[in-house]
């Protein structure tokens, strides 16, 4: 029986979502280390078909942007009873400065009121904004970008600005999250591969070069065990499903956290502080990260 204290898992999730319907609900199974993370949920269709706790003890279960299900070791959730999914349907709204057409509404003027992006739709599940461009993932797993196209930052094979959302170069319908930095983007697919594009100054794309990319490329060394990524000003950081933390790009004032001074054009681990990292965020000149111990 999957219980947490006196409540079963379904009741626990329902309780937490009722208290914070657009917040983050983290539920841990007694006697195991499985965690279900639910963000921006509008409705929960069913949570009765979660994998068996005993069989999956020691494995983390992520529900990423309500689009993808996978374990922290990269394995897919293949439970035959998992026919019900957590359901989300959301419209996407933008406002503010509209230089480089960053609002995605096909018009050129600024807006002091929220407005939907061109084409609308009610199937957006996550969005990330950068300096002058944006990226968003739909519930069908497609990835869309708009705004400034310099250095190929839209990932559509061009360097042209876009005033409305358009898909990145044809790389499937299995995107689960994207993080937009100043001039580059990092995104993860449901197969746990990590892709980057845009400006590559200081090797911020992590592909072993410093050449700009106008379409998504995998990081050097590849791998299918990336869980979360964050793109910043001149660098990128990402967490693998084994709990290790990796950084690359500019290393001004030690921002890469590897005790060195040189820039890196491929992912490298931070100084040895365990394998229990779960989230990272890259800013202008520093990085912050959270461990699973809270």
Task: Report what the structure shows.
The protein is mainly beta and 294 residues long. Helix content is 4%, strand content 39%. The longest helix has 11 residues, at 9-19. The radius of gyration is 19 Å and the shape is globular.
List its salient traits.
four-stranded antiparallel beta sheet; 294 residues; single chain; mainly beta; disordered N terminus
How do the SSEs run, as a string of H and E? Answer: EEHEEEEEEEEEEEEEEEEEEEEEE
Q: What is the C-alpha radius of gyration, as a whole number of Å?
A: 19 Å
Broad structural category: mainly beta
N- to C-terminal separation?
26 Å
Percentage of residues in strands = 35-45%
User: Any idea what the shape is?
Assistant: globular
Helix % is under 10%
Mean residue pLDDT = 74
Placed side by side, the strands forming the largest sheet appear as 11-12-13-14
- List unreliable stretches of 5+ residues: 1-89
Please tally the β strands and state the result.
24
Describe the largest sheet: 4 strands, antiparallel
Number of helices: 1
How would you summarize the topology of this molecule?
Elements lengths: L2 E2 L2 E2 H11 L4 E5 L6 E5 L3 E2 L16 E4 L3 E4 L14 E2 L5 E4 L14 E6 L7 E6 L3 E6 L4 E5 L14 E6 L7 E6 L3 E6 L4 E5 L14 E6 L7 E6 L3 E6 L4 E5 L14 E6 L7 E6 L4 E5 L3
Antiparallel strand pairs: 1-2, 3-4, 5-8, 6-7, 9-10, 11-12, 12-13, 13-14, 15-16, 16-17, 17-18, 19-20, 20-21, 21-22, 23-24
């Amino acid at each position: 029986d999957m219980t947490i204290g006196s409540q079963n898992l379904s009741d626990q999730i329902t309780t937490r979502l009722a208290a914070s319907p657009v917040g983050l609900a983290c539920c841990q199974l007694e006697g195991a280390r499985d965690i279900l993370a639910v963000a921006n949920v509008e409705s929960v269709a069913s949570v009765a078909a979660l994998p068996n706790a005993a069989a999956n003890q020691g494995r983390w279960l992520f529900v990423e942007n309500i689009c993808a299900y996978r374990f922290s070791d990269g394995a897919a959730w293949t439970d035959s009873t998992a026919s019900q999914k957590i359901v989300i349907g959301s419209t996407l709204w933008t406002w503010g400065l509209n230089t480089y057409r960053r609002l995605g509404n096909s018009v050129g003027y600024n807006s002091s009121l929220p407005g939907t992006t061109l084409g609308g739709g009610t199937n957006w599940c996550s969005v990330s904004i950068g300096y002058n461009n944006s990226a968003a993932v739909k519930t069908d797993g497609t990835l869309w970008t708009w705004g400034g196209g310099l250095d190929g930052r839209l990932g559509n094979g061009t360097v042209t600005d876009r005033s409305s959302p358009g898909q990145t170069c044809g790389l499937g319908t299995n995107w689960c999250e994207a993080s937009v930095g100043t001039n580059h983007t990092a995104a993860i697919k449901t197969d746990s591969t990590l892709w980057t594009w845009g400006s590559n100054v200081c090797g911020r794309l992590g592909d072993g070069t410093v050449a700009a990319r106008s379409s998504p490329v995998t990081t050097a060394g590849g791998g299918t065990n990336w869980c979360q990524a964050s793109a910043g000003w001149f660098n990128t950081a990402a967490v693998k499903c084994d709990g290790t933390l990796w950084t690359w790009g500019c290393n001004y004032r030690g921002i890469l956290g590897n005790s060195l001074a040189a820039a890196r054009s491929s992912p490298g681990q931070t100084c040895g502080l365990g394998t229990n990292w779960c989230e990272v965020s890259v800013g202008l000149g520093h990085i912050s990260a959270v461990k699973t111990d809270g």
